Amino acid sequence: MLENLKQKFPNALSNIQDTKNITSYIWFEDSIGSTIGIPRSEISAEEIRLLELLFTPLFFQNKINTFPHTLWNTFLFEPNASLPLTSWENVRFIHFNLTHADFSHSHFEDAFLAFVPSDSVLIWENEKAGILIETDTDESLSKNELLAISTTLESDFYVKTRMFTGRFHSVNQELPYHRNQENKCFNLAQLHLPDLKVTDLADIIPHSLISDQSATSKTWYINEILGKTMNDTELMKTIKTYIECNSNATYAAKQLYIHRNSLQYRIDKFTEKTGLDIRNFPHALAAYLILLLND
Protein backbone atom coordinates (compact mmCIF):
# COMPACT_ATOMS: atom_id res chain seq x y z
CA MET A 1 0.00 0.00 0.00
CA LEU A 2 2.79 2.43 0.90
CA GLU A 3 4.53 1.66 -2.39
CA ASN A 4 1.37 2.70 -4.23
CA LEU A 5 1.34 5.96 -2.26
CA LYS A 6 4.93 6.63 -3.30
CA GLN A 7 3.85 6.41 -6.92
CA LYS A 8 1.13 8.99 -6.31
CA PHE A 9 3.45 11.18 -4.21
CA PRO A 10 6.91 10.79 -5.82
CA ASN A 11 8.51 13.23 -3.35
CA ALA A 12 7.37 11.20 -0.34
CA LEU A 13 9.98 9.90 2.10
CA SER A 14 10.24 6.45 3.71
CA ASN A 15 12.56 7.40 6.53
CA ILE A 16 12.27 10.23 9.04
CA GLN A 17 16.05 10.60 9.00
CA ASP A 18 15.92 11.59 5.31
CA THR A 19 14.88 15.15 6.20
CA LYS A 20 15.95 17.80 8.67
CA ASN A 21 12.53 19.44 8.49
CA ILE A 22 10.20 16.73 9.77
CA THR A 23 7.20 19.03 10.14
CA SER A 24 7.21 19.82 6.40
CA TYR A 25 5.72 16.35 5.86
CA ILE A 26 2.55 14.52 6.89
CA TRP A 27 3.64 11.16 8.36
CA PHE A 28 1.80 7.84 8.47
CA GLU A 29 2.66 4.36 9.73
CA ASP A 30 1.20 1.06 8.51
CA SER A 31 0.40 -2.09 10.52
CA ILE A 32 3.95 -3.47 10.24
CA GLY A 33 5.68 -0.26 11.32
CA SER A 34 6.70 1.10 7.91
CA THR A 35 6.41 4.87 7.55
CA ILE A 36 5.82 7.40 4.80
CA GLY A 37 6.17 11.17 4.85
CA ILE A 38 4.22 13.15 2.26
CA PRO A 39 5.09 16.83 1.62
CA ARG A 40 2.40 19.08 3.08
CA SER A 41 2.36 21.14 -0.11
CA GLU A 42 1.40 18.09 -2.20
CA ILE A 43 -1.51 16.64 -0.23
CA SER A 44 -5.03 17.96 0.27
CA ALA A 45 -7.03 17.98 3.50
CA GLU A 46 -9.41 15.42 2.00
CA GLU A 47 -6.52 13.07 1.16
CA ILE A 48 -5.16 13.46 4.69
CA ARG A 49 -8.51 12.44 6.18
CA LEU A 50 -8.68 9.38 3.90
CA LEU A 51 -5.16 8.24 4.81
CA GLU A 52 -5.93 8.66 8.51
CA LEU A 53 -8.60 5.99 8.08
CA LEU A 54 -6.10 3.59 6.51
CA PHE A 55 -2.93 4.30 8.51
CA THR A 56 -1.81 5.60 11.88
CA PRO A 57 -0.91 9.32 11.69
CA LEU A 58 2.39 10.25 13.30
CA PHE A 59 2.97 13.67 14.83
CA PHE A 60 6.53 14.98 15.10
CA GLN A 61 6.50 18.46 16.54
CA ASN A 62 9.73 20.30 17.14
CA LYS A 63 10.28 22.68 20.03
CA ILE A 64 9.11 25.67 18.02
CA ASN A 65 5.48 24.60 17.60
CA THR A 66 4.63 22.18 20.38
CA PHE A 67 1.38 23.08 22.19
CA PRO A 68 1.23 24.89 24.51
CA HIS A 69 4.74 25.88 25.71
CA THR A 70 6.96 26.96 22.82
CA LEU A 71 9.71 29.46 22.32
CA TRP A 72 7.34 31.63 20.29
CA ASN A 73 4.59 31.33 22.91
CA THR A 74 7.04 32.44 25.56
CA PHE A 75 8.40 35.29 23.46
CA LEU A 76 5.01 36.65 22.41
CA PHE A 77 3.10 36.27 25.66
CA GLU A 78 5.62 36.61 28.50
CA PRO A 79 7.28 39.94 29.41
CA ASN A 80 10.95 40.43 28.55
CA ALA A 81 11.26 36.98 26.95
CA SER A 82 14.15 36.26 24.57
CA LEU A 83 13.67 36.39 20.81
CA PRO A 84 13.64 32.84 19.36
CA LEU A 85 16.64 31.94 17.25
CA THR A 86 15.47 32.10 13.63
CA SER A 87 16.69 32.85 10.11
CA TRP A 88 13.52 34.84 9.39
CA GLU A 89 13.95 38.54 8.67
CA ASN A 90 10.28 39.56 8.44
CA VAL A 91 7.13 37.85 9.68
CA ARG A 92 3.45 38.54 10.00
CA PHE A 93 0.80 37.11 12.28
CA ILE A 94 -2.41 35.58 10.97
CA HIS A 95 -4.72 35.50 13.98
CA PHE A 96 -7.56 32.99 14.05
CA ASN A 97 -10.48 32.28 16.34
CA LEU A 98 -12.81 29.27 16.40
CA THR A 99 -16.35 28.93 17.71
CA HIS A 100 -15.67 25.78 19.73
CA ALA A 101 -12.89 23.34 20.63
CA ASP A 102 -14.70 20.05 20.00
CA PHE A 103 -12.09 18.68 17.59
CA SER A 104 -8.58 17.24 17.50
CA HIS A 105 -6.14 20.14 17.76
CA SER A 106 -3.35 18.09 16.19
CA HIS A 107 -5.55 17.19 13.22
CA PHE A 108 -6.70 20.79 12.82
CA GLU A 109 -3.10 21.99 12.98
CA ASP A 110 -2.00 19.48 10.37
CA ALA A 111 -4.86 20.43 8.06
CA PHE A 112 -4.15 24.16 8.45
CA LEU A 113 -0.41 23.77 7.90
CA ALA A 114 -1.02 21.68 4.79
CA PHE A 115 -2.32 24.81 3.02
CA VAL A 116 0.39 27.29 4.05
CA PRO A 117 4.12 27.73 3.28
CA SER A 118 6.07 24.83 4.79
CA ASP A 119 8.12 26.94 7.21
CA SER A 120 5.07 28.57 8.84
CA VAL A 121 4.56 28.05 12.56
CA LEU A 122 1.21 27.64 14.32
CA ILE A 123 0.92 28.39 18.02
CA TRP A 124 -2.16 28.17 20.23
CA GLU A 125 -3.19 30.95 22.63
CA ASN A 126 -5.94 28.78 24.05
CA GLU A 127 -8.21 25.95 22.90
CA LYS A 128 -10.12 28.16 20.46
CA ALA A 129 -7.60 30.75 19.30
CA GLY A 130 -4.12 30.89 17.88
CA ILE A 131 -1.66 32.54 15.55
CA LEU A 132 -0.05 31.40 12.33
CA ILE A 133 3.41 32.96 11.97
CA GLU A 134 4.32 33.40 8.31
CA THR A 135 7.57 34.68 6.85
CA ASP A 136 7.80 37.13 3.97
CA THR A 137 8.11 35.07 0.77
CA ASP A 138 6.58 34.88 -2.69
CA GLU A 139 4.26 32.21 -1.25
CA SER A 140 2.71 34.56 1.32
CA LEU A 141 -1.00 33.95 1.56
CA SER A 142 -3.44 36.41 0.01
CA LYS A 143 -6.73 37.37 1.58
CA ASN A 144 -8.63 35.26 -0.97
CA GLU A 145 -6.43 32.26 -0.24
CA LEU A 146 -7.07 32.61 3.48
CA LEU A 147 -10.79 32.83 2.79
CA ALA A 148 -10.60 29.55 0.83
CA ILE A 149 -8.62 27.92 3.66
CA SER A 150 -11.14 29.15 6.20
CA THR A 151 -14.02 27.69 4.18
CA THR A 152 -12.26 24.33 3.86
CA LEU A 153 -11.44 24.12 7.57
CA GLU A 154 -15.04 24.93 8.44
CA SER A 155 -16.24 22.13 6.18
CA ASP A 156 -13.73 19.60 7.51
CA PHE A 157 -14.03 20.32 11.24
CA TYR A 158 -17.57 21.71 11.52
CA VAL A 159 -16.31 24.85 13.24
CA LYS A 160 -16.72 28.50 12.30
CA THR A 161 -13.47 30.39 11.80
CA ARG A 162 -12.49 34.04 11.83
CA MET A 163 -9.08 35.33 10.73
CA PHE A 164 -7.19 38.62 10.89
CA THR A 165 -4.06 39.25 8.84
CA GLY A 166 -1.41 41.53 10.25
CA ARG A 167 1.33 43.38 8.38
CA PHE A 168 4.88 42.10 7.95
CA HIS A 169 7.33 43.26 10.61
CA SER A 170 11.05 42.89 11.19
CA VAL A 171 11.92 40.05 13.54
CA ASN A 172 12.93 41.92 16.69
CA GLN A 173 11.79 42.61 20.23
CA GLU A 174 8.90 44.78 18.96
CA LEU A 175 6.94 41.76 17.69
CA PRO A 176 4.97 41.19 20.95
CA TYR A 177 3.76 44.81 20.79
CA HIS A 178 2.64 44.41 17.18
CA ARG A 179 0.86 41.16 18.10
CA ASN A 180 -0.95 42.90 20.95
CA GLN A 181 -2.07 45.80 18.74
CA GLU A 182 -3.26 43.43 16.02
CA ASN A 183 -5.15 41.37 18.57
CA LYS A 184 -7.07 44.51 19.61
CA CYS A 185 -7.94 45.10 15.96
CA PHE A 186 -9.02 41.48 15.55
CA ASN A 187 -11.35 41.76 18.54
CA LEU A 188 -12.90 44.89 17.04
CA ALA A 189 -13.30 43.15 13.68
CA GLN A 190 -15.20 40.30 15.29
CA LEU A 191 -17.44 42.81 17.05
CA HIS A 192 -18.09 45.29 14.24
CA LEU A 193 -17.61 43.18 11.10
CA PRO A 194 -19.22 39.85 12.04
CA ASP A 195 -20.00 38.88 8.45
CA LEU A 196 -16.38 38.98 7.27
CA LYS A 197 -14.45 35.72 7.74
CA VAL A 198 -11.07 37.29 6.97
CA THR A 199 -10.22 40.88 7.87
CA ASP A 200 -7.13 43.08 7.98
CA LEU A 201 -6.07 46.45 9.32
CA ALA A 202 -7.59 48.36 6.42
CA ASP A 203 -11.02 46.91 7.23
CA ILE A 204 -11.01 47.94 10.86
CA ILE A 205 -9.10 51.28 10.89
CA PRO A 206 -12.17 53.54 11.40
CA HIS A 207 -13.39 51.45 14.36
CA SER A 208 -9.86 51.24 15.78
CA LEU A 209 -9.39 54.99 15.74
CA ILE A 210 -12.72 55.53 17.48
CA SER A 211 -12.05 52.96 20.22
CA ASP A 212 -8.37 53.77 20.84
CA GLN A 213 -7.32 57.38 20.45
CA SER A 214 -4.05 57.25 22.37
CA ALA A 215 -1.06 58.93 20.73
CA THR A 216 0.94 55.70 20.80
CA SER A 217 -1.77 53.75 18.99
CA LYS A 218 -2.31 56.49 16.43
CA THR A 219 1.40 56.45 15.63
CA TRP A 220 1.25 52.67 15.26
CA TYR A 221 -1.70 52.88 12.83
CA ILE A 222 0.10 55.49 10.71
CA ASN A 223 3.29 53.44 10.53
CA GLU A 224 1.39 50.22 9.78
CA ILE A 225 -0.61 51.71 6.91
CA LEU A 226 1.72 54.29 5.39
CA GLY A 227 5.15 52.92 6.23
CA LYS A 228 7.86 54.63 4.20
CA THR A 229 5.30 56.23 1.87
CA MET A 230 4.63 58.88 4.53
CA ASN A 231 7.90 60.52 3.47
CA ASP A 232 6.64 60.91 -0.10
CA THR A 233 4.84 64.23 0.30
CA GLU A 234 3.85 64.38 -3.38
CA LEU A 235 2.20 60.98 -3.18
CA MET A 236 0.42 61.86 0.08
CA LYS A 237 -0.95 65.09 -1.44
CA THR A 238 -2.09 63.22 -4.55
CA ILE A 239 -4.03 60.57 -2.63
CA LYS A 240 -5.62 63.08 -0.28
CA THR A 241 -6.71 65.29 -3.20
CA TYR A 242 -8.11 62.32 -5.11
CA ILE A 243 -10.26 61.26 -2.14
CA GLU A 244 -11.40 64.84 -1.50
CA CYS A 245 -12.48 65.02 -5.15
CA ASN A 246 -14.90 62.15 -4.45
CA SER A 247 -12.56 59.74 -6.27
CA ASN A 248 -13.16 61.61 -9.53
CA ALA A 249 -9.88 61.03 -11.39
CA THR A 250 -10.48 63.69 -14.05
CA TYR A 251 -11.29 66.40 -11.53
CA ALA A 252 -8.43 65.39 -9.21
CA ALA A 253 -5.91 65.46 -12.07
CA LYS A 254 -7.00 69.01 -12.93
CA GLN A 255 -6.66 70.08 -9.29
CA LEU A 256 -3.15 68.64 -9.18
CA TYR A 257 -2.14 69.94 -12.67
CA ILE A 258 -1.05 66.47 -13.76
CA HIS A 259 -2.10 64.08 -16.51
CA ARG A 260 -4.75 61.55 -15.60
CA ASN A 261 -2.31 58.72 -16.38
CA SER A 262 0.15 60.19 -13.87
CA LEU A 263 -2.60 60.26 -11.28
CA GLN A 264 -3.45 56.61 -11.96
CA TYR A 265 0.22 55.67 -11.64
CA ARG A 266 0.41 57.32 -8.21
CA ILE A 267 -2.81 55.63 -7.06
CA ASP A 268 -1.46 52.25 -8.15
CA LYS A 269 1.81 52.98 -6.36
CA PHE A 270 -0.04 53.87 -3.15
CA THR A 271 -2.11 50.68 -3.38
CA GLU A 272 0.99 48.56 -3.91
CA LYS A 273 2.85 50.13 -0.98
CA THR A 274 0.01 50.24 1.54
CA GLY A 275 -2.43 47.51 0.50
CA LEU A 276 -5.23 50.09 0.37
CA ASP A 277 -7.29 50.17 -2.82
CA ILE A 278 -8.70 53.68 -2.47
CA ARG A 279 -11.09 53.12 -5.36
CA ASN A 280 -13.43 51.39 -2.93
CA PHE A 281 -15.02 53.36 -0.10
CA PRO A 282 -13.86 51.43 3.01
CA HIS A 283 -10.20 51.64 1.97
CA ALA A 284 -10.59 55.26 0.86
CA LEU A 285 -12.05 56.11 4.27
CA ALA A 286 -9.23 54.32 6.09
CA ALA A 287 -6.62 56.05 3.93
CA TYR A 288 -8.15 59.50 4.43
CA LEU A 289 -8.32 59.12 8.20
CA ILE A 290 -4.70 58.00 8.32
CA LEU A 291 -3.61 60.87 6.09
CA LEU A 292 -5.40 63.36 8.35
CA LEU A 293 -3.68 61.86 11.38
CA ASN A 294 -0.32 62.01 9.64
CA ASP A 295 -0.84 65.69 8.83
Description:
With 295 residues, this protein is of the alpha+beta class. It has three domains: 57 residues, no CATH class; 130 residues, Reverse transcriptase/Diguanylate cyclase domain (Alpha-Beta Plaits); 80 residues, PucR C-terminal helix-turn-helix domain (Arc Repressor Mutant, subunit A), CATH 1.10.10.2840. It is 47% helix and 15% strand. The strands form two sheets. Strands 4, 5, 6, 7, 8 and 9 form a six-stranded mixed beta sheet that branches. It has a three-stranded antiparallel beta sheet with strand order 2-1-3, with helices on one face. A hairpin with a 5-residue loop joins β1 and β2. α9 crosses α10. The longest helix has 18 residues. About 3% of the residues have low confidence.
Short account of what is shown:
With 295 residues, the chain is of the alpha+beta class. Helices cover 47% and strands 15% of the residues.
Keywords:
Arc Repressor Mutant, subunit A; 295 residues; Homeodomain-like_sf; 9 strands; alpha+beta; single chain; Alpha-Beta Plaits; elongated
